[in-house]
Write a structure and sequence with these properties.
Helix content is 48%, strand content 22%. The protein is of the alpha+beta class.
Length: 160
Amino acid sequence: MKRSEVSTTTMILTRRSAIGSFAIMAIAGVSPWAGSQARSEHSNGGMPMKHYAMSTRTISDAINTSGLLVVAQWEAKEGQADKVAEILDGFLPEAQKDPGTKLFLIGRGKDNPAQFLFYELFQDEAAFKAHQDSAAFKTYIAEQALPLLAKRERSQYALL
């Protein structure tokens, strides 16, 4: 193999390994941002989110097929981080039920609890649109959470 082929193969395997590890931690109920729930609570002064989960589909299905990957980063306004976390705690199980949702993870910043990271894998563009059109998205995200944010960034990726 050429050097460029090796690095591309390594990057793909590393990405899939990272996704798999993240998902395994999610299923096990282990926060990827902190070694333990108690340490997480202590270090950021807030309550950790109860859910780091994915739907009942298999990890293999989620990472070994094509799809649309959406990564979003939020930052809550001053004093609103715990309220945002509470809203997301109610939203997450609803989002995971959306048809075409393969993987849906939300993390809260360990060093800055006002920061939130979304890692969402959808079957395709139509599934992502359906997710955004869902009653849960409109209620929890559009109506409740977005007004509490200082910053919201999203990027979309096609799986290799």
